[in-house]
Design goal:
The protein has 11 helices and 13 strands. It has 308 residues and is an alpha/beta fold. The protein has 2 domains: 182 residues, NAD(P)-binding Rossmann-like Domain (Rossmann fold); 106 residues, UDP-galactose 4-epimerase, domain 1, CATH 3.90.25. Strands 3-2-1-4-5-6-11 form a 7-stranded parallel β-sheet, sandwiched between helices. Strands 7-10 form a two-stranded parallel sheet. A two-stranded parallel ribbon has the order 8-13. Helix 3 packs parallel to helix 4 and helix 5 packs across helix 7. The chain starts with a strand and ends with a helix. 41% of the residues are buried.
Length: 308
């Protein structure tokens, strides 16, 4: 059995579906089981718990049935009550310590492309801290670092598509030349499922050797697209033409600060602007070279859900 955190999220929902299709039995750690009834189905158990509560994680593991943990919980922006440090760093520490306590040796973790020591953004800094906790844990880990994800319920392509549908123009932070290697969430979860390596054959699936143990994989799409090109692609798929207005970062930053002070969930944050000032690409895409998955292109992928 697999313990899955973040099952109600975008990646988690897609991963849960893929794992069930492959015959895995999955136990989902959820904060409120009554609100997670939508994911309950054959092969799925719901247990109440929170990554900020180590005892609740240990309780979810105490029957000895779980052989691997898949940790997906993360946030894209901080709020007054939720910080990157609490969720990414301490939440991962709690997961790791609970797994060690209950002798769950296999640990799959989702990080982010751009994660590195001395990163500019707090998002990437805390993702790095989480990775370091895992790397020094003694667990048999696999860490995935995807670029920006797209898929039917994403908060990326859908966000800009909704703006394009109602506005005659779209505002671009900076010059729009920063590059991303957008990747399909379906490609990511296929790779993650392949990397889950049970210690027994109870599941009848999974990689049966240790080639994915203690590895960090960068996961990306086939194209390195400038942000301007991404917006143009979404417009083309929607059959719309929109004026792009580039807002200098020097003006975006104070606007983001004001948004952080006013809104519980600000539309843009200063930390996100830092990430938009750098490319999010890789020369070491593991999708094809390691997992043999031919990545879906951005335009081809979004046509399946934006053009309908």
């Amino acid at each position: 059995m697999i313990l899955l955190t973040g099952a109600t999220g975008f990646v988690g929902g897609n991963l849960l579906k893929e794992m069930l299709n492959q015959g895995f039995k999955v136990r989902c750690l959820v904060r409120n089981p009554s609100k997670a009834e939508a994911i309950k189905q054959a092969g799925v158990e719901l247990v109440q718990g929170d990554v900020t509560d180590r005892d609740s994680i240990a309780k979810a593991l105490e029957d000895g049935k779980v052989e691997a943990a898949v940790h997906l919980v993360g946030i894209l922006a901080e709020t007054k009550n939720t910080t990157f440090k609490v969720i990414h760093t301490e939440g991962t520490r709690n997961m790791v310590e609970a797994c060690k306590q209950k002798n769950v040796k296999r640990f799959i973790h989702i990080s982010a492309l751009g994660t590195r020591e001395n990163a500019r953004s707090e998002y990437h800094k805390t993702k790095w801290e989480a990775e370091e906790i895992i790397r020094h844990s003694g667990l048999e880990y696999t860490i995935f670092r995807p670029s920006v994800l797209f898929g039917k319920e994403d908060k990326f392509a859908n966000l800009f598509a909704n703006i394009i549908k109602i506005s005659p123009f779209i505002m671009i932070p900076g010059n729009g030349k920063n590059k991303m290697q957008t990747v399909s969430v379906k490609d990511l979860v296929k790779a993650m499922t392949m990397a889950i390596n049970p210690h027994t054959n109870d599941f009848g699936v999974g990689v049966k050797d240790s080639k994915h143990i203690n590895k960090v994989y960068e996961i990306a799409g086939p194209e390195k697209l400038a942000f301007n090109k991404i917006i143009d692609t979404i417009c083309r798929v929607l059959g719309r033409t929109r004026l792009k207005i580039h807002i200098p970062m020097s003006l975006m930053r104070p606007g983001a600060l004001i948004a952080e002070c006013i809104f519980p969930k600000p539309p843009i944050t200063r930390d996100q602007l830092l990430m938009l000032e750098e490319d999010n690409i890789t020369e070491n895409n593991a999708l094809e070279s390691i997992f043999g998955i031919k990545p879906v292109g951005f335009e081809e992928g979004i046509k399946g859900y934006l053009a309908t």
